[in-house]
Amino acid sequence: MNPVWNDCVEQHQARTGGMAYLGFHASHEQIDPKALLDAVQLAEQAGFAAAMCSDHFSP
């Protein structure tokens, strides 16, 4: 496993006791960056615990 991923897993387990939590997938290949940032901020205000995105851009 990737050491960075291991750190993320350990931090998650420490925060949540290992329980799952809901996040927001930020699809930057489908949504304008400003609109996406606004959506992620609204998701955070609504109580989502995480935002994730892919590591590539669509041409």
Q: How would you describe the shape?
A: flat
The Rg value, from CA coordinates, equals 13 Å
Number of strand segments: 2
Quote the average pLDDT.
Answer: 78
For the termini, the CA-CA separation is 30 Å
Main sheet: which strands, in order across? 1-2
Helix/strand order: HEHE
Give the low-pLDDT segments.
none
Helix content: 40-55%
Largest sheet: 2 strands, parallel
Class by SSE composition: mainly alpha
Instruction: Tell me the fraction of residues in β-strands, as a range.
Output: 5-15%
Number of helices: 2
How would you describe the overall organization of this protein?
The chain is mostly helical and 59 residues long. It contains 2 helices and 2 strands; from the N terminus they run αβαβ. The protein has helices at residues 3-16, 33-45, and strands at residues 23-25, 50-52. It has a two-stranded parallel ribbon with strand order 1-2.
Keywords:
2 helices; 59 residues; single chain; two-stranded parallel sheet; mainly alpha; 2 strands
Quick synopsis:
The protein is mostly helical. The chain has helices at residues 3-16, 33-45, and strands at residues 23-25, 50-52. A two-stranded parallel ribbon has the order 1-2.
List the helices and strands and how they pair.
Layout: H1 3-16, E1 23-25, H2 33-45, E2 50-52
